[in-house]
Protein backbone atom coordinates (compact mmCIF):
# COMPACT_ATOMS: atom_id res chain seq x y z
CA UNK A 1 0.00 0.00 0.00
CA UNK A 2 2.95 2.33 0.62
CA UNK A 3 4.33 2.01 -2.91
CA UNK A 4 1.25 3.37 -4.79
CA UNK A 5 1.04 6.14 -2.18
CA UNK A 6 4.71 6.92 -2.68
CA UNK A 7 4.32 6.98 -6.46
CA UNK A 8 1.32 9.29 -6.33
CA UNK A 9 3.17 11.53 -3.82
CA UNK A 10 6.22 11.62 -6.10
CA UNK A 11 4.08 12.39 -9.15
CA UNK A 12 2.23 15.10 -7.23
CA UNK A 13 5.52 16.64 -6.09
CA UNK A 14 6.85 16.63 -9.68
CA UNK A 15 3.63 18.21 -10.92
CA UNK A 16 3.75 20.90 -8.22
CA UNK A 17 7.39 21.66 -9.09
CA UNK A 18 6.44 22.01 -12.76
CA UNK A 19 3.55 24.34 -11.88
CA UNK A 20 5.80 26.45 -9.64
CA UNK A 21 8.33 26.84 -12.47
CA UNK A 22 5.54 27.95 -14.82
CA UNK A 23 4.16 30.41 -12.24
CA UNK A 24 7.63 31.88 -11.67
CA UNK A 25 8.00 32.35 -15.44
CA UNK A 26 4.58 34.01 -15.56
CA UNK A 27 5.46 36.25 -12.59
CA UNK A 28 8.72 37.30 -14.24
CA UNK A 29 6.88 38.10 -17.46
CA UNK A 30 4.39 40.24 -15.48
CA UNK A 31 7.24 42.08 -13.77
CA UNK A 32 9.02 42.77 -17.06
CA UNK A 33 5.77 44.24 -18.41
CA UNK A 34 5.34 46.35 -15.28
CA UNK A 35 2.22 44.47 -14.16
CA UNK A 36 1.47 43.46 -10.58
CA UNK A 37 2.64 39.99 -9.59
CA UNK A 38 1.49 39.98 -5.94
CA UNK A 39 -1.21 37.35 -6.49
CA UNK A 40 1.28 35.05 -8.27
CA UNK A 41 3.80 35.51 -5.46
CA UNK A 42 1.22 34.28 -2.95
CA UNK A 43 0.41 31.24 -5.12
CA UNK A 44 4.11 30.45 -5.63
CA UNK A 45 4.89 30.75 -1.92
CA UNK A 46 1.98 28.44 -1.04
CA UNK A 47 2.99 25.93 -3.72
CA UNK A 48 6.59 25.92 -2.50
CA UNK A 49 5.34 25.09 1.01
CA UNK A 50 3.14 22.33 -0.42
CA UNK A 51 6.09 20.92 -2.37
CA UNK A 52 8.25 20.93 0.76
CA UNK A 53 5.55 19.03 2.67
CA UNK A 54 5.27 16.42 -0.10
CA UNK A 55 9.05 15.94 -0.11
CA UNK A 56 9.02 15.54 3.69
CA UNK A 57 6.26 12.91 3.38
CA UNK A 58 8.32 11.07 0.75
CA UNK A 59 11.34 11.17 3.07
CA UNK A 60 9.28 9.75 5.94
CA UNK A 61 7.85 6.96 3.76
CA UNK A 62 11.34 6.10 2.51
CA UNK A 63 12.82 6.07 6.00
CA UNK A 64 10.00 3.83 7.24
CA UNK A 65 10.34 1.45 4.26
CA UNK A 66 14.13 1.15 4.68
CA UNK A 67 14.06 0.78 8.48
CA UNK A 68 11.39 -1.96 8.37
CA UNK A 69 13.18 -3.71 5.46
CA UNK A 70 10.15 -3.43 3.18
CA UNK A 71 12.52 -2.57 0.32
CA UNK A 72 16.06 -3.58 -0.61
CA UNK A 73 19.02 -1.28 -0.04
CA UNK A 74 19.33 -0.80 -3.81
CA UNK A 75 15.69 0.27 -4.10
CA UNK A 76 16.17 2.52 -1.06
CA UNK A 77 19.14 4.19 -2.76
CA UNK A 78 17.17 4.63 -5.99
CA UNK A 79 14.27 6.23 -4.13
CA UNK A 80 16.69 8.41 -2.13
CA UNK A 81 18.10 9.70 -5.45
CA UNK A 82 14.56 10.61 -6.58
CA UNK A 83 13.93 12.46 -3.31
CA UNK A 84 17.31 14.21 -3.62
CA UNK A 85 16.43 15.29 -7.17
CA UNK A 86 13.16 16.74 -5.90
CA UNK A 87 14.97 18.52 -3.06
CA UNK A 88 17.45 20.04 -5.52
CA UNK A 89 14.64 21.17 -7.77
CA UNK A 90 12.80 22.64 -4.78
CA UNK A 91 15.91 24.59 -3.77
CA UNK A 92 16.35 25.87 -7.33
CA UNK A 93 12.71 26.95 -7.44
CA UNK A 94 13.07 28.63 -4.02
CA UNK A 95 16.16 30.50 -5.22
CA UNK A 96 14.41 31.49 -8.43
CA UNK A 97 11.38 32.68 -6.49
CA UNK A 98 13.59 34.89 -4.30
CA UNK A 99 15.46 36.19 -7.37
CA UNK A 100 12.51 38.21 -8.59
CA UNK A 101 12.72 39.29 -12.20
CA UNK A 102 15.51 36.90 -13.20
CA UNK A 103 15.20 33.64 -15.08
CA UNK A 104 17.88 31.14 -14.10
CA UNK A 105 18.77 28.42 -16.60
CA UNK A 106 17.66 25.80 -14.08
CA UNK A 107 14.07 27.00 -14.27
CA UNK A 108 14.14 27.10 -18.05
CA UNK A 109 15.49 23.57 -18.19
CA UNK A 110 12.92 22.36 -15.66
CA UNK A 111 10.20 23.77 -17.88
CA UNK A 112 11.67 21.93 -20.84
CA UNK A 113 11.59 18.55 -19.09
CA UNK A 114 7.91 18.27 -19.89
CA UNK A 115 6.59 17.67 -16.40
CA UNK A 116 6.08 14.25 -14.86
CA UNK A 117 8.17 11.54 -16.52
CA UNK A 118 9.55 9.15 -13.95
CA UNK A 119 13.02 7.77 -14.68
CA UNK A 120 13.46 9.74 -17.92
CA UNK A 121 16.20 12.31 -17.82
CA UNK A 122 17.47 14.34 -20.70
CA UNK A 123 21.25 14.80 -20.40
CA UNK A 124 21.10 18.01 -22.46
CA UNK A 125 19.00 19.71 -19.79
CA UNK A 126 21.41 19.27 -16.89
CA UNK A 127 22.68 22.47 -15.37
CA UNK A 128 26.09 23.46 -16.65
CA UNK A 129 28.90 23.43 -14.09
CA UNK A 130 30.72 26.59 -13.02
CA UNK A 131 33.99 25.41 -14.61
CA UNK A 132 32.48 25.13 -18.08
CA UNK A 133 29.98 27.99 -18.05
CA UNK A 134 30.87 30.55 -20.69
CA UNK A 135 33.57 28.45 -22.36
CA UNK A 136 33.65 27.96 -26.11
CA UNK A 137 34.11 24.67 -27.94
CA UNK A 138 37.91 25.02 -28.22
CA UNK A 139 38.16 26.01 -24.53
CA UNK A 140 36.12 22.95 -23.53
CA UNK A 141 38.31 20.69 -25.66
CA UNK A 142 41.45 22.21 -24.11
CA UNK A 143 40.01 21.75 -20.60
CA UNK A 144 39.14 18.15 -21.44
CA UNK A 145 42.71 17.51 -22.65
CA UNK A 146 44.11 19.03 -19.44
CA UNK A 147 41.86 16.81 -17.31
CA UNK A 148 42.90 13.72 -19.29
CA UNK A 149 46.58 14.65 -18.87
CA UNK A 150 46.07 15.04 -15.10
CA UNK A 151 44.32 11.66 -14.97
CA UNK A 152 47.15 10.07 -16.99
CA UNK A 153 49.71 11.54 -14.60
CA UNK A 154 47.74 10.14 -11.67
CA UNK A 155 47.55 6.72 -13.32
CA UNK A 156 51.30 6.80 -14.00
CA UNK A 157 51.97 7.55 -10.33
CA UNK A 158 49.61 4.75 -9.29
CA UNK A 159 51.32 2.38 -11.72
CA UNK A 160 54.76 3.15 -10.27
CA UNK A 161 53.47 2.63 -6.71
CA UNK A 162 51.96 -0.73 -7.66
CA UNK A 163 55.18 -1.76 -9.44
CA UNK A 164 57.19 -0.86 -6.35
CA UNK A 165 54.81 -2.86 -4.14
CA UNK A 166 55.04 -5.82 -6.53
CA UNK A 167 58.83 -5.67 -6.35
CA UNK A 168 58.72 -5.47 -2.53
CA UNK A 169 56.33 -8.44 -2.45
CA UNK A 170 58.67 -10.48 -4.63
CA UNK A 171 61.67 -9.56 -2.45
CA UNK A 172 59.75 -10.52 0.69
CA UNK A 173 58.77 -13.80 -0.98
CA UNK A 174 62.41 -14.50 -1.94
CA UNK A 175 63.56 -13.68 1.60
CA UNK A 176 60.94 -16.05 3.04
CA UNK A 177 62.08 -18.81 0.66
CA UNK A 178 65.67 -18.27 1.76
CA UNK A 179 64.68 -18.31 5.45
CA UNK A 180 62.71 -21.51 5.03
TrEMBL record:
Residues 145-180 form the T-SNARE coiled-coil homology domain. InterPro entries: T_SNARE_dom. Residues 41-68 form a coiled coil. Keywords: Coiled coil. This is STX8 protein. It comes from Calonectris borealis (Cory's shearwater). The lineage of its organism: Eukaryota, Metazoa, Chordata, Craniata, Vertebrata. The gene is Stx8.
Amino acid sequence: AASPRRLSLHDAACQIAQEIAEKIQERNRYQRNGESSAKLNVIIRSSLQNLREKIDQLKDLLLRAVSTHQITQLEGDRRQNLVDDLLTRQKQLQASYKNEGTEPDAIRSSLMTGGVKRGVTNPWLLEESEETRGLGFDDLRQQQRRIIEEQDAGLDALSSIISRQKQMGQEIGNELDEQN
